[in-house]
Fold these 2 entries.
Entry 1:
Amino acid sequence: MKKIKEYQSELVKWIGLVLVTLVFGFWSDWNLLSAYNLNSMIETVTPLAIACIGMAFVFAHGGMDISSGAVVALAALLAVVIMNGTGSVVLGVLFAMGASMLCYFVNVIVTNKFGLMSTITSLAIMFSARGIVTYICQNTPNESISIANVDVTMFKKNHIFMIVMVATAMIVLGIIFNYTRLGKGARAIGDNHISAGQNGVNIDKTKVICYLIAGICVGLAAVFKLCSTGMVQSSTGNGFEMDILVCLVLGGMSLSGGMGTKISSALVGSLTYVILMKGLTIIGMNPNVVILVKAIVFIIIIYITTQRSNLKTLPR
Amino acid sequence: MKKQIITTMLASSLAIGLLAGCGSSTYSSTSESNAQAESTDTAEEVKIGVILYNYTDIQGKEIKNYCDNYLAKEFPVTFEYQTAASGDNEAHLQAVDSLISTGCDAIMSGYDTVIGESMEKCDSAGVYYGILFGEAKDEADQDGLYNEYGNWGTTDQSNLYYSDYFLGGSYQFGEDHGVALGEKYGQAVVDAGMTKVGAISFPSYAFSDGLSICEGFTNVLTANGVEICVNEDTNALPAEAGFMSVGDDTKTYIAKYEDMDCLFGMSSGMDMVLPAVNEVGRLWSESNSGEGTLKMATLGYNESSDKYLEDGTLIIGGTNNYVESVAYLFTMMFDAANGNNMKTDETSGFEYNATIGYPTFTNADELNDFKTYVLTTTADDFSTCSVTVDEMKSVMKAYGGTGSWSDLNGLVSRDVEAVKGAR
């Protein structure tokens, strides 16, 4: 009976996604599903979904991160410098992941050691990363650094590759999230960290690994973002952290974490969000109103999510 | 469970509800009056997107007024507007993407921001793209290293310069990139009796013509024995102002030259430079209670230009001819969307850049002509504007016109006197 209930819970998210697709598809005379718009949505959803999937580990144990936009900028900056310097995309990707992991490592270490709220620590990371990117970009001739003579077609135009990357992230991290000690431990911490610790979960270690997973995903997302614009500038990644939050809550992610957290929220939320935004654009809504819709959806779902939680706690 | 259903339904219904409320008032111009044009002409309905930094300054207002209240009423065309903040490439690409998604046939980009990336999107979607206030440069032909710092991005993207969908841009300051314009400004400043003069402009990578304009400006000043307030870094004009710090940079610059008596504001002269000079009490003005001594020459016009020109603070002002810029791209885009692409028509004489006029004014009569024949928001009479519908139709093949790019270039490169003569 419990499994059926869980199945129904998942089903509702997907029905919501289908509903949004159908409504906007019909509304736009199915222009929503034109070749251009499908490709455009794949390009938008890829970095978002990958980052959300990684971030699910942070949210599962009750953490919170608002630095991902700035971390994306820093990781992309390092990636473009490495790519231009070595001509290797692979090295660029690895350095982007490394930079991102370093940011999240510092974040979680500071949070663990000094007992700071993760939101506050991520705020410090956000300012630091953004500051570095802004300083470096402002000292370049164009106030930006472009990808030079490196073939990034794979990350930019290969939509099959994008889908494969999202699917791989979802499957691999989905297994870790649902079936390993790490994933279960993270969710247990989200429910009650004292109880989780008493039951053998190494809280600090679990949190560190969760943040590192988020770092890998955000680093990878940064490469997709970099390749989509072809350059890094001080505004790169602006608002990305809020997009991630909206996607996760739209997918039904509980911001207080816990066993009820589903990694599928990341994928469903990202897809729903991108289709919703594209749909609103296609039917001609004023761009400023689209932003307003984003904010309203976010606030309402946060309210419902916190009401739903028995503990009624917000992220620590 | 119940609340989860509510969450999903709410998100959907919220979006749908807002669509009902706001969706109808889209950000596009209305095309109610298109019916008349459709009933008499054979041209097909065209949708054109516009991307600017904003629609609240004089440039944005002028363009929107000309498009919505003139072109949209005389042609079967709908305009969609998007905003992308200055220097935000991601926002610009998002705007391009949105306009393509909404079904635009063509996009007028205010600036040459990330052309390569933008063109990739437009080329794949079959959407025409052009630059309103910038020159189309074939960076691939320069040194083969264009892709490191050029706006065209990677090698593949630079090839899109030759795409049928890239319709080019325009010389906003003349084919000499503003040398003659600079000389005109310099002469006005000399004629006004100024003795110690400075100039401030945006960074050269963003406003490369600024250097040419300054070259002409400086040449006239030095030939007439006027002292130059040099930028200490370059030992020449202009001083450099950051996009987001024009005011502060202006104040810093003029503070170094307390006896400077004229400043050439090239970085949004009226909107950003003049107010900064006024804030520190250096502006010479009858209405200024301070003891200012600085007079102004500006690239730019706004509502306060009248007052400052009248009291002698403003020696010379001017601005890009917005109407000519829009009319140029609109004519090509509308015809191209109707199957008559000048770029692919070998007989049209297509070139990548038209030469748009840069009207200036130094006295009340010239300012009056400027407002009558250049601006549309002050005159509110499109029959006197720089390019009229009939003139555009005389070039458009969709209306039996010549289809000649040279004819079009002739229409959009007229100075105020030529426009005045044609009315």
Entry 2:
Amino acid sequence: MDFTDSPEEAEYRAKCRAFLDATLPRRRPGHVRGYRRGEDGPDVVPQAKAFQGKKFDAGFAGITWPKEWHGQGGTPIQQMIYDQEEANYDTTVNAIGLQLSICIPTICRWGTQEQRDRFAPRALRGEEVWCQFYSEPSGGSDLGSLRTRATRDGDEWVINGQKIWTSLAHEADWGVLIARSDFDKPKHEGLTFFYLSTKTPGVEIRQIKQMSGASHFNEVFFKDARIPDSQRLGPVDGGWKVAMSLLMGERYSMHDEFGPSFKELFSLARQLELNGRPAIEDGGVQDRLAEFYVKAQGLRFTRHRIMTSLARGEAPGPEASIGKLVAATKIQDAASYGLELLGAAGAEMGADMALEGIFEVSFLDSPAFRIAGGTDEILRNTIGERVLGLSPDLRADKGMPFKAIPVGSK
Amino acid sequence: MNFDFPDELKQLRDTAREFLVEHCPSTLTRKALESTDKVDRALWREIGEMGWLSAAIPEAYGGLGLGHLSVCVLAEEMGRAIAPLPYSSSVYMAAEALLLYGSEQQKHSYLPRLATGQAIGTLAFVETAGPSNPASFDTRFVDGRLTGTKVVVPDGDIADFAIVAVRSLEEGPSLCIADLGDAGVTRSIRPTIDPSRGHATIRFDRAPAEPLPTAKGATAFQHLIDRAAVMMAFEQLGVAMAALEMACDYARGRYAFGRPIGSFQAIKHKLVDVYISTELARSNCYWGAWALESGSSELAVAAAASRVAACDAGWTATRENIQTHGGMGFTWEMDCHLFYRRARLQALALGSAREWKRRLVGALCARESVATPADIAA
């Protein structure tokens, strides 16, 4: 049992570090500026795109992708080492992370070599940004309930309907879309998968203002938007399988989430006074800090277990499924506890507040993490059914023609 | 990166699990719970013959010299089986104290007998309610004689000898070894929340004892407890895993309202939360095992983190196992209470999670940085 890299891993890590040192500022302790703090200034996406280009040039974009996808043909452990190193630097690159985790892999997996050649290099270089037209007002967690209609018209498809919670659509050049091509079939059997330019006539993108005041996501309206059949991925009515093929693929994040980590809570508790003593000496504070620490270390060392499997060329065990679920609540709780320690002064916001105001910002930002990319509840269902072998919930709409299923809010 | 147990220890784990399923079923735990004859001596000697009691004892003292990772693996299986055996007392506490602080003569005298199972050892340190502070122990060792009273001594009813924590005067010895058969030692068996393991109050009245020569000051006692806590955390994890599996089995097979109860999110989501607490505990425990085996300076922090996480997993899993079983879970007949009792017994021995949380933060404050050497990314 050891934490040391193999000689090959150490060499790769050194290469990652050399590139990152030359390209990005290292994160300073307690320094929480940038996208990590949930800010969405006008620089975030341009900076992310510029850095993605440098990553590509240095050979760190698409590390595990095969050569036919214009990737590096590397191993999952190399990806993990790179991510682990990148997490030590200030970067906003995650702002455009979705295209490389979901959109382009879907294109490459289901598309032609020409499509791969057209889209993969530009996404890997950060020249083009992608979004994902999935969720709808009538179907978020229950994605299969989507109602956006795709009607065949000769060599084209005509799209009508509405998507929502589409992250980055307002910055995106392209999007992948799942729409209903047959309303008479059961809900998962009448869906077809496409991609399209966000500039397609009939596509209207409106930014949604989030509770935090930021606007990362959008609602998108399709009114007689036309897509050539050549931009269909997978068979007609076979779109569910296409969508699931990438949603199921787990990515093992090495990054801390965008919020206060244990380090920030710990230094806050050392800075503040409680009854004339450092807050860290208070028993109640110690109890809570220990609980946060054990959770943080539990996640950290779970990643080491995942890395160990990847280093051996094995698939990680079921423990890989808990990361997002645990981290999301941990951030919200850490933000809340930071405010509690700050007391009445914790209400005031601003970068001149303790720890650059991360607790106040994260308080308003963190509810998103428990919803985006699979809600806590959906993730618990998935783990309960796949890992613990418990029966799925009864589905009231099972086998019914889609048009007969009640949807939305009544 | 190799943050896992080696293959030969995974084989040991499989062998141990198979053996315990066959030879140490819950009926044996139940038998111990319901009688005064707690330990199956034949079974104890058999696991001695298989080397489980001597895995971390060097060959020079009659052991296998496999190192502490092997004990961690076996501890988890002991927990899984809720074995009614003095494994923690003899292995994590008595043998560990001798390995750390015993003289050559003491090691040669005691360790071979612990290794075979011929002798059972324990650690006696608790004197009163609340955290045990070595600086305020009443038990004294003066002129080769031990005087004082220790309570809830695990396996104190059957142990042949005890490592006894004493008030350390001026960097004097903080741990002694005493033969419990000697004149001057009185033991009275006490009821506990988990009668599948025996406990006793032990009174030493000028009982003959020897100091463990290198156990000086309170830190020696703390260090022993840290090391024992990692091994105990694995045993706690084993109990939690077994309770979680029992709850999931029941949730899969028990029907209500025309469907398996595990299909209800109220049950499913709760069991997922239990699963998460076991995985977080396992990851912390692996870190503790690494620190234990490598002799890392991180041990104090890693041990406390393992302990806190394992206490949480044990409590959550055994409590929700009862709840998942409903009324049946509250019966004497179902095994749920065996896990519930054992998990709490483990979580109290060596001090409660509350105490370990304070120690954890104290140990973090004592370091220059929160970043751990084991964590490349920090």
